[in-house]
Amino acid sequence: MNTQLLIQLLVNGLVVGTLYGVVAMSFVLIYKATQVVNFAQGELLLVGAWVCWWLLTKYQVPFYLGMPITLVFMFLFGIAIQIVILRPMIGEPIISVIMVTIALSTVFSALMKWMFGVNLQPFPRIFQTQNVNILGLQVQTVYLMSLAVSVAMMVGMAWFFRLSKYGLAMRATAFNQQVAQSLGISVKSVFAMAWAISATVSAVAGVVVAVVNGVSAGLSAYGVKVFPAAILGGLDSVGGAVLGGIIIGLLENVAHFLDSEYLHWGNLYEIAPFYALIIILMIKPYGLFGTKDIERV
Amino acid sequence: MAGQTIIPAGDFRTSYAADTTVFPTTTSRNAMIAGIALTCVAPHVVNEYVLSLLIQIGIFGIAALGLNIVVGFTGQISIGHAAFFGFGAFTSAYLSNRFGIPVFFCIPLAGVVTAAVGLVFGLPAARLKGLYLAIATLAAQYILLDFFARAEWFTGGSVPASAEPFSIFGYMLRGDKQYFYVVLAYVVVCYLLVTNLIRSRDGRALVAVRDHYLSAEIMGINLTKYRTLSFGLAAFFAGVGGALYAHYNQVVSNEGFGIDRSIIFLAMIIIGGLGSIMGTLMGTAFMVLLPESMEWLSVALRDSPIDQFLGLKNNIAFLREMAIGLIIIIFLVFEPDGLAHRWRQIKAYWKLYPFSH
């Protein structure tokens, strides 16, 4: 048994898993607040990463400036999507809403390919040192950064929902829209804000992935991996999404390990989360922490 | 009320048979027969290119019809239809290559095998609904695609599988012109089948499951059975469409059965009209002609300022993808009932002209 490889893969899994967790968290945020399943989550990542890349390479904006500009842009972008596309869809059947987000993902991914091409673009170097030595294990600096940013996003999100006034309003809306409205909460602005925050958080994740791997259309694959993560954690649980993301990240890499060491099936890395997804849906569709009020047939 | 040539003003149907009849008047029946007869002449009139478009409309129309059973009539969501389409294509090629079964029998057989696979993936539908089901079918899409890449005995792996040309009683059909009639026959049979299915007890049960599943269950409709059944039926038509596609191209590769194709299938039925049989064909025609018309436009606009600004030549593929997404959004926001609804309105307008009410 190749222990070195296993440890390396587990570290990978943890890093990728926390990123999945962040994206799943922003996916769940939209679902919880607005009851919309966002199939375009991966494209939000993609847009954020490309915008940041564009600012950094085309305009030579330093990273500490480029990043906030990206985030502000994505904040407005999220609000715009909600107001222009999804607000008219309120009250439409669930299939229409799902289809709209699927169509959005098609539009955005094609638009990004059109504007920036299909090739992988390396991100400008941000850190001076490539590797850091931790307990005898060579860890790339970007991985550490990724982990730190992810954890920071999660803590920030927790703070936002537990302690800030706006987060409370959002939770109230998620709990019961009519009651929230009667207490003076503007449900409209909560909906827009949910999309804005989700887009911003996704963009952070997108930039982190871009710093590690470079930017390409393949980034939107993170949007698909969100489903196993969010379903595993429970579709309406923010904490569950984080845990689900980490588990899926680890699962992928363990599958990769088993595959390369023993099974030699190839490509198990890619497909294992979907088998897990089907199994979870069959035995425990509300996930680990989800509310158990899904109408079972 | 067969025998009538026009519908009287007002609703005079007195029997159940009259209410569910396929052709309310003899005129509509004759128009349909004339339409099919006219299509039969098409291969001798139109050029190769238009013929290939017509064949594509027929093939995708059959697969989209299956999707409309699941989405439009039963109200379930499937984002994995292209994978079943691909499964049908590979199955038909495999059956004819491996067992030497004549292609004539391979196509319906591929439908049956794909239906069995569809039933397996429809099992989550027995327990889940709405968006959970959508996610399950998304997983099915990826799992089946992975299976295509993995199962070399079945699909040939990275080497495309070859499919034999269509033959009937030892007579080999050559070229698009002759294959057109095969596709046309399948389209007519499939559309008649589904029209009659929806009129039957089972079809009404499917619609009841869509409209109000609780009421349907109270009235004695077995939800599990009909939800799973609708997946099986959808997969059957996807399989038949895929098999026709395989023998049309005579080669089946892993390409073209991905999630983007599934989205195009969904776009077809949304644009045509969810729960409308003729609408499915309209939507399919729309989605097949959309990229082609964009191609014509880009050729027409060559070297114009618009061309220089958009870079049409290099970017037409992306623009096409974008157009598909935008069309779906536009239809969902402005015309959620699809082209079928618009067609009914146009018909009503001419029927009532000059008195609009």
Automatic annotation (TrEMBL), chain A:
The chain crosses the membrane at residues 9-30, 36-56, 63-85, 97-120, 141-161, 192-215, 227-251, 271-289. It holds the Pfam family BPD_transp_2. The keyword Transmembrane helix applies. It is found in: Cell membrane. One of its GO terms (biological process) is amino acid transport. The keyword GTP-binding does not apply. It comes from the Bacteria. Its main location: membrane. Keywords: Amino-acid transport, Cell membrane, Membrane, Transmembrane, Transmembrane helix, Transport. It is a multi-pass membrane protein. One of its GO terms (cellular component) is plasma membrane. One of its GO terms (molecular function) is transmembrane transporter activity. PANTHER family: ABC TRANSPORTER PERMEASE PROTEIN, BRANCHED-CHAIN AMINO ACID TRANSPORT SYSTEM PERMEASE PROTEIN LIVH. Belongs to the binding-protein-dependent transport system permease family. LivHM subfamily. This is ABC transporter permease. It comes from Bradyrhizobium valentinum.
From TrEMBL, chain B:
It comes from the Bacteria. Keywords: Cell membrane, Membrane, Transmembrane, Transmembrane helix. It is found in: Cell membrane. The keyword Cell membrane applies. GO terms for molecular function: branched-chain amino acid transmembrane transporter activity. Its main location: membrane. It is a multi-pass membrane protein. It holds the Pfam family BPD_transp_2. GO terms for cellular component: plasma membrane. The chain crosses the membrane at residues 49-70, 77-95, 101-123, 130-149, 179-198, 229-248, 263-290, 317-334. This is ABC transporter permease. It comes from Bradyrhizobium retamae.
